[in-house]
Amino acid sequence: MGRIAYLTKRGAVWWYRRRYPVIVIHPSQNNQISVPCCDNGTSLQARGHLAVSLRTRSKREARILGAFISADFERAWAMIEAVMNEHEFDTDMMDAIAMTMAKHFRSLIEKIAHGPASSFPDGVKLRAYRILEQDLRKALGVEGKVIFADAQPAPQVEDGPQAEAMCQAERDALACEEDRGDDYWAKCGELFDPENEPEHPRLAHIGDGARTNDDYYADYVVADFGLHTHAFRATLSEYLAACERLNLDPSDANAAFPLALKEAMDAAQKIGMVPALEPKSSPAPAPRKNSTQKFADFADKYLALRCQGYTLAREDETADAATGRNFERTSLRNWQSSVRLFVEIVGDLPLCDIGKEEIIEFNDWLQRLPKNFGKSSKDKRTARQFIEDADEHDTIGINELIEKLRREGKPPGEIEEAAAAARVVRLSATTMKRHQQALHAILAYAHESGAIDGNPFKGRTLTTSEIKRRKRSERRVERVGWGEDIYALLGSEIFQNELAEQDEPLFWCPLIAMYAGLRLEEILQLRVNDFYSDAGIMAVRVQNEIGSQEVKSDNGFRSVPLHRALTDIGLPELVTLRRQQGLSRLFPHIERSKSKGTLSAIMSKRFGYYTESRGIKKPG
Question: Strand runs (DSSP E) across 26-163, as ranges?
């Protein structure tokens, strides 16, 4: 017997066995955001083979079941390949997908093996399989040809050694078919009439061969319809999302799409799910929303609602004042900077004029924005001016530096290092994503409130995989502990000389951080009532007694015994002084910054200036 593609025999039973394909994950092809292509793709392949017992000894039945499995396998693998570039896949994930597919196909064969046709005589089933194979050849347009590679015609019983190689069930089936005439098949029809066979009420009598085919195949199609349409529904959703992302008309992007919808609509009308549509001569286009409100004005109203405590993520929402205060304290400045960036790069356009082209333009300029933009209040350049100056430096300025070093006779390695160090550091992928998410949320609310037809930012933000790829090529320094450098800090003048003020925070904050493990914001907001004595041991609570303090997480609420180093240098005396003065805070003269609204913002800059000016500060 000739070998059939993907089919093999183990003992007397046919199996479907094939290796999982190799899939190449290509670099991102997101044309909305310029990302340099830096590799040719990564190859992934699930380990092992897909091996499924077809639970049949009949070669013809194995062919039919193999055709069903092959079709489902190709559809499922096409879906997997389509989403590879949107998600991070690895070998373990591919193995998990392969195991799920194998489990599905085994369940499918189990259903067929125990279906209504399982109790038919072998001769009846063989005749049905022959008809099924004829229909399959006809549907594929390969009548008179083999369907599978290396397939051979079914051997006859008289073929001697070949007949001996066949299983007993196949020989019995062939002999049964050849020995029985039409009267036998008529009797079979009476035997399996629904009235005489209550266990299979869905089957009609099968005396006629065509009815046998219809009953067997129809039962399979009805039982597994949801399984076979899952791939189409998933593909349909991805197709519509892809067309929206590329700003394509789904009806024109692929000729198969309108045809598939028409056939589905015709089927729905045929069974009465939807009324038949009357053709219209000139359908009127849907009216387009055309809000002329400026983007900056709409963004101000959106942020005002967020500061009131609305998340604007659902309808019929009740404002939460604490949520609003937290947003205003921690996030408002970042969102305002995102709005300002968009206006400076694209312009303060009416909402109706913001479309795909404007978002692509914004993303292109955003990825070129220098990291230090907006850090200096004295620099009045707009975002576009900042970017143009940085681009000019990275072309003309770097080229001049390279020529200068060449004239000085520097080796190529040193020239490369100097050029890399001189390049302007651009915005990180994480910060880019933050700006994009803020603008996406504002335009999404504009869409939900009816100001615009759709959200032009949808599908045009950095994906998780794109952020990971960008981070691998970004310039960054790993953050490390102070190590031996801490002695340079403690040896500087503020820790060695007598303090001008007993409550100097530049002196106390590093020491409390070192010996008590408190964050800078937690130190600066300490209150006198946070200090207490337990069994003669002085300790401090990190808490929010009256609602004026902020704790980063639930685990941030804690009590910490004071190290003897802190008590020896006079921290308890400072607490006592504050009680005598009638003051509630340990550092009452520290003000909140206007930009972030935190106590630590100004103090952090002051500490950074102190360490840098003394030559103590190092990268990381």
Answer: 42-44, 49-53
For 537, phi then psi, to 5°, come to -105, 125
Is residue 574 classed exposed, middle or buried when 0-12, 13-18 and 19+ CB atoms within 10 A define those classes? middle
* Residue type present at position 244: E
CA distances to 258, 398, 502, 509 from 415, rounded to whole Å, are: 59, 10, 51, 42
Planar angle of CA 171, 176, 179, nearest 5 degrees: 120
Distances in whole angstroms, Cα of residue 176 to Cα of each of 127, 163, 168, 172, 210: 10, 15, 12, 6, 19
d(CA 252, CA 275): 26
> Could you give the CA distance from residue 68 to residue 5 in angstroms, rounded to a whole number?
13
User: H or E stretch including 245?
Assistant: helix 225-245
Model confidence, pTM = 0.45
For 462-510, the pLDDT digits (tens) are 888 888 888 877 766 566 677 788 888 888 998 998 888 888 999 999 9
Distances (CA, A) of 353 to 204, 356, 436: 63, 10, 18
Query: What interhelical angle do 59-82 and 122-140 show, nearest 10?
Result: 50
Run of H or E including 560: strand 558-561
- Give me the count of residues in the chain: 620
One-character DSSP codes across 141-159: T-TTS-SSTT--PPPPTTS
Given pLDDT bands bounded at 50, 70 and 90, which one contains residue 350?
very high
Q: Is 555 helix (H, G, I), strand (E, B) or coil?
A: helix
Task: In whole angstroms, give the CA distance from residue 325 to residue 134.
Answer: 73
Average pLDDT score over the chain: 75
Looking at the predicted structure, is the pLDDT value of residue 595 above 80? Answer: no
